[in-house]
UniProtKB/TrEMBL annotation, chain A:
InterPro entries, per the entry: CPA3_Na-H_Antiporter_D (IPR050586), NADH_UbQ_OxRdtase (IPR003918), ND/Mrp_TM (IPR001750)
Main location: membrane
Stretches that traverse the bilayer: 6-24, 33-53, 73-98, 110-130, 136-154, 166-187, 207-227, 248-267, 279-301, 308-326, 377-395, 415-440, 460-481
Residue stretches making up the NADH:quinone oxidoreductase/Mrp antiporter transmembrane domain: 130-425
Source organism: Clostridium liquoris
Gene Ontology MF terms: NADH dehydrogenase (ubiquinone) activity
Protein name from the UniProt record: Na(+)/H(+) antiporter subunit D
Recorded topology in the membrane: Multi-pass membrane protein
One Gene Ontology term, aspect cellular component: plasma membrane
Any GO BP annotation: ATP synthesis coupled electron transport
UniProt keyword list: Cell membrane, Membrane, Transmembrane, Transmembrane helix
Cellular compartments annotated: Cell membrane; Membrane
UniProtKB/TrEMBL annotation, chain B:
Residues in NADH:quinone oxidoreductase/Mrp antiporter transmembrane domain copies: 124-419
Family to which this protein belongs: Belongs to the CPA3 antiporters (TC 2.A.63) subunit A family.
TM spans (from-to): 6-25, 32-50, 75-95, 107-125, 160-181, 201-228, 240-263, 275-293, 370-387, 407-429, 450-467
Cited InterPro entries: ComplexI-like_HydComp (IPR052175), ND/Mrp_TM (IPR001750), Proton_antipo_N (IPR001516)
Localization terms from the record: Cell membrane; Membrane
GO molecular function: oxidoreductase activity
GO cellular component, one term: plasma membrane
Protein name, as recorded: Na(+)/H(+) antiporter subunit A
Species for this entry: Clostridium liquoris
Domain (NADH-Ubiquinone oxidoreductase (complex I) chain 5 N-terminal): residue spans on this chain: 66-108
Amino acid sequence: MLIDSFPLLTVLLLFITASIMPLLKKSNLVKGICIISFIVSFVMYLATLNRVLKTGDYFYRVGHFNAPFGIEFHVGTVECIMGILFTFVAIMVIWNSIYNIHFDIREDKIPLYYLLVNILIASLLGIVFSNDMFNVFVFIEIGNLASCGIVVVKDKKENIKAGMKYLIMSCLGSGLVLMGIAFLYSITGHLNMTYIHNELVKNYIHYPRTILITLGLFTVGLGVKSAMFPLHTWLPDAHSNAPTTSSAILSSLVLKGYILFLIKVLYRVFGIEIIRNFPILNIILVLGCLGMILGSIFAIFQKNLKRVIAYSTVAQMGYIFFAIGLGTELGIIMSIFHIIGHAVTKAALFLCTGAIIQGTGHKNLDELKGVGKEMPYTLGLFFIASLSMIGIPLLPGFVSKWYLALGSIEANKTLLIAVILASSLLNAVYYFPVSINGFFGEENLRGKIYKSKSKSLKELLPIIILVIAMIYIGIDSQSIINLIKTGLV
Amino acid sequence: MKNLLIILPILFPFLAAITIAVAKFQEKKRNVFAAVSVILNLVFVVYLSHHMPGGKLHLLKINEFLDIYFKIDKLSIFFSSLVSILWVFTTIYSMEYMKHEGKEDRFFSYFIATLGITLGIAFSGNLITLYLFYEFLTLATFPLVIHSGSKEALESGKKYLIYSFGGATLVLFGMIILFSLTNNLTFVPKGILNNVSDSNIYLISLSYLVMFIGFGVKAALVPFHAWLPQAMVAPTPVSSLLHAVAVVKSGAFALIRITYYIFGAEVIRKTHSAGYLTVLIVISILMGSFLALHQENLKKRLAYSTISQLGYILLGIILLNESSLVGGMLHLINHAVIKITLFFCTGAIMYTTGKTEIGQIAGIGRQMPITMWCFTISSISLIGIPPTNGFVSKWNLALGGLIDGKAVFPAILLLSALLTAMYLLPVITEAFFKKGDNVILLKKEAPKKMVIPIVCITMITVLLGLFPNPILVFVREIANELI
C-alpha cells in the first residue's frame, strides 16, 4: 500500500524540497515551499498513524531488500506520534518565521536557512523511524551539521563562537555513538536493531564489559546531544544566540530526536532485561535529578531572557532522563509524554520571547520590565505557557509531574518526589518574575504606551495555536498516554 | 442539566471581571455593575443552597485524578454564604475607598474574579479541584496585593507568591502520596481512608503533616506566617477581605476538608500527628498576640492579631472532637465579620484623616464617633466578653479542649484573650479619652458608602452574639456528620 511508504516519502520529500531551495531566488517562494512540504508531511503522518492504529506496527523495507541486508523503517504508534509532533511544531515555528525571519538573517541567506531547516527535520524524522543503527548514525551526522548551520547563520561573532562550541561537542557525541555502534556490530554482526536485540539476548552474558562500555558510549554520546546535565554546556550559548526560529526548533525538536534514539537503544536494542543488570538506568536517573535541580538554579541567575529559557530546557530534559531512569513502563510512557508536552510548550515560549525581543529590542530581564503593557498579548501567551512549566493542574507540565511522582512511588523511590517538587518550585522562581515584572510595578510601566509594540493577530496566530495545542495535550492527556501505552506493548 | 447551575456562581464573577476589564465603564456605571454582579452572585449562592443541596457536577473528568468535580454540601454552603455576603459589603466599601488608590478597573476585575475562585474552593468536591482553585487564588490575589505597584508592594508580593507556592507544593506532595495509597481524592464525610491498611500509617501521617503545613501557609500558621503582615501594603479592602476572609479562611476551610473529609478523625488519631501540629498552633496563638502588642501601625497590629485568631480556628480543627470543631467553625465566621469591621474602620480612618499609626489617632473618637464605636464593639467581641459572638466560639473551643482532658487549652485561650484586650483596648482609649494635639472636634465621618458597610457588619456581629443559635445549630449538624 502507498500509505506504508509515507514515512519514507516524507523524509525524501523534505530532502528533495530542500535541494530545490537554493536554486530559487525569491525568498517568499522558498518559505512557501518549506511550509507546504511540512504540511504535506504532517497530513501523511496523520494517515500513517491512522493506518498503524488499525492494523498495527509494521516494518517498511527500503528498496524491498530483506532485513539484515536492506534498511528498514519501523513504523509504530510512538514513531507516528513523534512524526506528527515534529511536523506540527515545525509548521508553527516556520509559519511564525515567515513574518520575522528577515530581522535575524540577511535576505540572501534565507533560502539557505530554510534548506537547513528542512534537512534538519528530515534527518530527525529519519532517526525516529529508522530501524538500522548505521542509518541512524548517518541521519545524526546530517542533523548535526544542519543544526550547527542554523545557529551560525546569523553571522555574528557570538553566533560563530556558540556554533563552534556546539559543533565540537556534537561531533564528539556522534563519535561516541559511532563507537558504540561499532562495538555492537563486533558483538552481534548486525546493524539492524531487531537483529541486534535477538543476538544480544542470546549471548549478552559473555560480554558484560563490552556491553557496559557500549551503554556508556551511547548514553554519553546521545547525552551530549540531548543536553544531559553535566554535558549541557553548549546548549545555553547555542540556543540563546541562534535566531528565534532556530532556538525554537533546536530546543523543542532536535534534542528530542536524540533522546528518542536513546530510548530506542536502551529499550529496543538492549531491552529492559539486559540493562537491568547494569547500573546505567540509575546513573541516568541521578543525572536527570541533577539536571532538574541545577538547570533551574542556573536559570535563576541568568540575566538574558533567552538564556533563562535555554537553561529551563536543561531542567526539562532532566525530567525526561528522570523518567527514562525510572526503568518502569510508566517511566517510558511519561518520558515520551514529556517530550510531547515540552516540545509544544517550549516552542511557544521561544516564539514569544523572540517576538518580545524583536518588538522591544531588549534582551535582558531588567530592560524587559513593563513589557506587558507594550505587548500584552504576547506576554499573556508567555505566561500561560510558563504556567505549564511551573505545573498548574490541567496543563501538560502538571500531568508529567504527577505521573512521574506516582512512577517514583511505584519504583520504591518515594524521596524522588521531593526532587520533582523542588524543581517545579524553582521553575516558578524564574518564570514568574518575567510575567510579574512585565505586567505590574508602577516604576516599570511608567512611560510605556499601551499596546504600542503589539504584534498583529496574524503574527501571533502560530503561538496561539501552539498554546491551544499545549492546553489540549494537558486536558486530553489520558488518551495520549493510552495511545503511547498501546504503542509500547 | 440542572446540576450545571453549580458552576454559575463560580463562572459568573469571571465574566463580570472580564467585562469590567474590557468595557472601560465610567466610574458610576462600573460601580453599579460591580455591585449588581456581586449581589446577583449572592442570589445564585442562596438559590443553590436552598434548591439543590447535594447537587453534584463532574465538569471535566480527564482521568481518575484530574477530575474537576463540584459538590454542594453543608460545609460548602456555610463557607460560600459567608464569603458572598462579606463580598457584597466589601465591594460597596471599596467603591469609595479605592478612589484614592487609583487603577480601580484593574482592582475591581481581579477583586470580583477572586470571588469566583473562592466560591470554587467552597464548592470543590475533591482535593484536586480544591488544589486547582487554591493555585488560582494565589494568582488572582497577587495583583491585588501589589496594587500600588511600589517597590515595597512588589517585594511583599514576591514573598506572598513564594510562600503560597511553597505551601501549594507541599500540598501536592501530600496529595501524590495519598493518591498512591487510595486512588481517590473525593471528599467524603469521615474520610476515604477506611480501607487503607495500618502498615501505611507512616505514609498517611507524613501526607497529613505535609498537607496541613501546606494549607497552613495560607492560614498563617507560625512559622509560615511572615507573608501576612507584609501583605498589609495592599489597599485596605484587600487586606480586610483577603487577609481576614477569603485567603486565610480558604486555608482554614481546606484544612477542615482534608482533616474530616479525606483523612477522618479516626485515622488522624491513629497517626498521632495532631500532637506536633498542636504545638505549632499554640505557638501561633501566643506569638501572634505578643507580636501584635508591639505594632504601632494599626493595620499591622490587626494582621498579627489575625495570625493569633486563625490559630484558634486551627486549634478547633485539630482537637478532633465535636465541640472544638463547632467552636472552630463558629470562630471562622465570627473572626471574619469582626476582623473585617476592624479593618474597615482602620481604612475609614486612613481615608478621611490619613492617619495610620496608633500614636496619631488620639481623640479621633470624637471626630469619627460611628466608626470608632463600631471598632469598639468589634474589639470587645474579639476579646470574647459575653454576650458577644467571640465568646460563643471561644466557649465551645474551651469545652472541646476540656473534653480532651487538657486544661492547658482553656488556659491558653484565656491568656490569649487577655493579650487581645491588651492590644486592642489601648486603641480605643487612645481614640476616645486622649486629647489630640490639634483639637479639631469637628465631626467628620468617612463617606456614606464606607460607613454603611461598617455599621451593617457590626450589626451582624452583635446579632451573632445575641442570637447564636441558628448558626450554632447549623454548625453542629455539620460537625455531627463528621465525628
